[in-house]
Structure prediction request, 199 residues.
Amino acid sequence: MADRDGDEDRALLARHGRRLLDLTHASVLHDFEFGRPLPVDIGNETAELAAQRATLVTLRVRGGIAGTDPVRRAGTVHAWRPLLADISGNAFAAAFADRRQPPLGAADRYDLAITVALLGAPQPLPAAEPESALRPGEDGVLVEWEGGSFALYPEAWAALPTPRAFLAEARRRAESGAAAGDVALRCARFAVAAVSDDD
Prediction:
Protein backbone atom coordinates (compact mmCIF):
# COMPACT_ATOMS: atom_id res chain seq x y z
CA MET A 1 0.00 0.00 0.00
CA ALA A 2 1.38 3.40 -0.96
CA ASP A 3 2.24 5.79 1.85
CA ARG A 4 -0.38 8.50 1.74
CA ASP A 5 1.76 11.10 3.48
CA GLY A 6 4.72 10.45 1.21
CA ASP A 7 2.61 10.59 -1.95
CA GLU A 8 0.93 13.83 -0.91
CA ASP A 9 4.22 15.41 0.09
CA ARG A 10 5.82 14.53 -3.23
CA ALA A 11 2.87 16.19 -4.96
CA LEU A 12 3.26 19.26 -2.73
CA LEU A 13 6.94 19.49 -3.63
CA ALA A 14 6.10 19.18 -7.32
CA ARG A 15 3.88 22.25 -6.91
CA HIS A 16 5.95 24.33 -4.49
CA GLY A 17 9.45 22.87 -4.37
CA ARG A 18 11.13 25.73 -6.19
CA ARG A 19 9.54 28.25 -3.88
CA LEU A 20 10.65 26.32 -0.78
CA LEU A 21 14.23 26.15 -2.05
CA ASP A 22 14.18 29.88 -2.81
CA LEU A 23 12.79 30.60 0.65
CA THR A 24 15.62 28.59 2.21
CA HIS A 25 18.27 30.53 0.34
CA ALA A 26 16.60 33.88 1.05
CA SER A 27 16.50 32.99 4.73
CA VAL A 28 20.23 32.16 4.78
CA LEU A 29 21.02 35.53 3.20
CA HIS A 30 18.71 37.26 5.69
CA ASP A 31 20.43 35.40 8.53
CA PHE A 32 23.79 36.90 7.61
CA GLU A 33 22.32 40.39 7.32
CA PHE A 34 20.19 40.47 10.44
CA GLY A 35 21.26 37.51 12.59
CA ARG A 36 17.81 35.94 12.79
CA PRO A 37 15.49 33.83 10.60
CA LEU A 38 13.60 35.48 7.77
CA PRO A 39 10.10 36.43 9.04
CA VAL A 40 7.33 34.61 7.20
CA ASP A 41 3.77 35.89 6.87
CA ILE A 42 1.39 32.97 6.38
CA GLY A 43 -1.80 35.04 6.52
CA ASN A 44 -2.50 34.73 2.80
CA GLU A 45 -0.98 31.31 2.20
CA THR A 46 -2.81 28.19 1.14
CA ALA A 47 -3.73 25.67 3.82
CA GLU A 48 -0.96 23.25 2.81
CA LEU A 49 1.75 25.91 3.19
CA ALA A 50 0.31 27.30 6.42
CA ALA A 51 -0.19 23.91 8.08
CA GLN A 52 2.10 22.82 10.89
CA ARG A 53 4.74 20.57 9.34
CA ALA A 54 8.06 19.02 10.23
CA THR A 55 10.93 19.71 7.83
CA LEU A 56 14.64 19.10 7.47
CA VAL A 57 16.89 21.66 5.76
CA THR A 58 20.30 20.56 4.48
CA LEU A 59 22.98 22.97 3.26
CA ARG A 60 26.15 21.98 1.44
CA VAL A 61 28.72 24.34 -0.09
CA ARG A 62 29.28 23.54 -3.75
CA GLY A 63 32.70 23.16 -5.29
CA GLY A 64 34.42 20.99 -2.71
CA ILE A 65 35.73 17.49 -3.17
CA ALA A 66 32.86 15.02 -3.43
CA GLY A 67 32.10 13.40 -0.12
CA THR A 68 34.16 15.87 1.91
CA ASP A 69 31.96 18.95 1.79
CA PRO A 70 30.65 19.78 5.26
CA VAL A 71 26.93 19.19 5.41
CA ARG A 72 24.91 21.38 7.74
CA ARG A 73 21.36 20.44 8.61
CA ALA A 74 18.56 21.26 11.00
CA GLY A 75 15.05 20.03 11.61
CA THR A 76 12.77 18.07 13.90
CA VAL A 77 10.54 15.09 13.20
CA HIS A 78 7.60 16.44 15.19
CA ALA A 79 5.67 19.32 13.61
CA TRP A 80 5.28 22.42 15.79
CA ARG A 81 5.09 25.47 13.49
CA PRO A 82 3.79 26.38 10.01
CA LEU A 83 5.62 24.82 7.07
CA LEU A 84 7.11 28.05 5.70
CA ALA A 85 8.17 29.24 9.16
CA ASP A 86 9.75 25.87 9.87
CA ILE A 87 11.81 26.04 6.70
CA SER A 88 12.96 29.59 7.45
CA GLY A 89 13.87 28.70 11.03
CA ASN A 90 15.66 25.52 10.01
CA ALA A 91 17.64 27.40 7.36
CA PHE A 92 18.95 29.68 10.11
CA ALA A 93 19.72 26.74 12.41
CA ALA A 94 21.47 24.77 9.67
CA ALA A 95 23.65 27.74 8.75
CA PHE A 96 24.67 28.67 12.28
CA ALA A 97 23.63 26.10 14.88
CA ASP A 98 24.57 22.62 13.60
CA ARG A 99 26.96 21.62 16.37
CA ARG A 100 28.67 19.06 14.14
CA GLN A 101 29.99 21.76 11.79
CA PRO A 102 31.35 25.31 12.08
CA PRO A 103 28.91 28.07 11.14
CA LEU A 104 28.49 28.75 7.46
CA GLY A 105 31.10 31.17 6.13
CA ALA A 106 29.98 34.43 4.59
CA ALA A 107 31.83 33.59 1.37
CA ASP A 108 29.84 30.37 0.98
CA ARG A 109 26.32 31.71 1.31
CA TYR A 110 25.82 32.32 -2.42
CA ASP A 111 27.04 28.90 -3.56
CA LEU A 112 24.90 26.46 -1.61
CA ALA A 113 23.35 23.19 -2.62
CA ILE A 114 20.05 23.11 -0.73
CA THR A 115 17.75 20.22 0.08
CA VAL A 116 14.37 20.64 1.76
CA ALA A 117 12.66 17.52 3.08
CA LEU A 118 9.08 17.20 4.30
CA LEU A 119 8.76 14.69 7.12
CA GLY A 120 5.57 12.74 7.66
CA ALA A 121 4.09 12.21 11.10
CA PRO A 122 5.85 9.38 12.97
CA GLN A 123 4.00 6.06 12.88
CA PRO A 124 4.81 3.53 15.65
CA LEU A 125 6.50 0.38 14.43
CA PRO A 126 4.77 -2.90 15.26
CA ALA A 127 6.11 -4.77 18.28
CA ALA A 128 6.42 -7.98 16.25
CA GLU A 129 8.94 -7.76 13.40
CA PRO A 130 9.14 -3.95 13.44
CA GLU A 131 11.58 -3.90 10.52
CA SER A 132 8.86 -5.34 8.26
CA ALA A 133 7.11 -1.94 8.23
CA LEU A 134 10.16 -0.07 6.88
CA ARG A 135 10.54 0.87 3.22
CA PRO A 136 14.22 0.72 2.23
CA GLY A 137 15.51 3.98 0.80
CA GLU A 138 12.36 5.91 1.71
CA ASP A 139 11.63 5.87 5.44
CA GLY A 140 13.41 7.39 8.38
CA VAL A 141 13.33 5.96 11.89
CA LEU A 142 12.69 7.94 15.06
CA VAL A 143 13.75 6.41 18.39
CA GLU A 144 12.53 8.20 21.52
CA TRP A 145 13.12 7.69 25.22
CA GLU A 146 12.39 9.66 28.35
CA GLY A 147 14.23 12.92 27.86
CA GLY A 148 15.60 12.44 24.36
CA SER A 149 15.32 11.16 20.81
CA PHE A 150 17.37 10.19 17.78
CA ALA A 151 16.36 10.23 14.12
CA LEU A 152 18.02 8.24 11.35
CA TYR A 153 17.26 9.65 7.89
CA PRO A 154 16.91 7.80 4.57
CA GLU A 155 20.40 8.70 3.35
CA ALA A 156 21.70 6.11 5.82
CA TRP A 157 20.09 3.32 3.75
CA ALA A 158 23.12 3.53 1.43
CA ALA A 159 25.30 2.04 4.17
CA LEU A 160 22.54 0.04 5.88
CA PRO A 161 20.63 -1.56 2.99
CA THR A 162 18.37 -3.91 4.96
CA PRO A 163 15.51 -2.90 7.27
CA ARG A 164 16.97 -5.01 10.07
CA ALA A 165 20.36 -3.28 9.85
CA PHE A 166 18.78 0.18 9.51
CA LEU A 167 16.59 -0.26 12.59
CA ALA A 168 19.41 -1.84 14.59
CA GLU A 169 21.68 1.13 13.85
CA ALA A 170 18.98 3.62 14.88
CA ARG A 171 18.49 1.75 18.15
CA ARG A 172 22.25 1.48 18.75
CA ARG A 173 22.76 5.22 18.35
CA ALA A 174 19.74 5.97 20.52
CA GLU A 175 21.00 3.65 23.25
CA SER A 176 24.37 5.39 23.23
CA GLY A 177 22.62 8.72 23.82
CA ALA A 178 20.08 7.55 26.38
CA ALA A 179 20.78 7.48 30.10
CA ALA A 180 22.49 4.36 31.39
CA GLY A 181 19.96 1.62 31.97
CA ASP A 182 17.17 3.37 30.06
CA VAL A 183 15.64 0.61 27.92
CA ALA A 184 12.24 2.19 27.30
CA LEU A 185 12.90 2.96 23.65
CA ARG A 186 9.96 3.74 21.37
CA CYS A 187 10.53 3.29 17.62
CA ALA A 188 8.54 4.87 14.81
CA ARG A 189 8.92 5.29 11.06
CA PHE A 190 8.35 8.54 9.20
CA ALA A 191 7.93 9.24 5.51
CA VAL A 192 10.41 11.59 3.82
CA ALA A 193 9.92 13.50 0.58
CA ALA A 194 12.68 15.85 -0.55
CA VAL A 195 13.52 18.41 -3.21
CA SER A 196 17.02 19.66 -4.00
CA ASP A 197 18.70 22.19 -6.23
CA ASP A 198 21.98 20.27 -6.07
CA ASP A 199 23.62 19.69 -9.44
The first helix runs from residue 4 to 34. The helical segments are 4-34, 47-50, 83-96, 163-177. The mean pLDDT is 91.
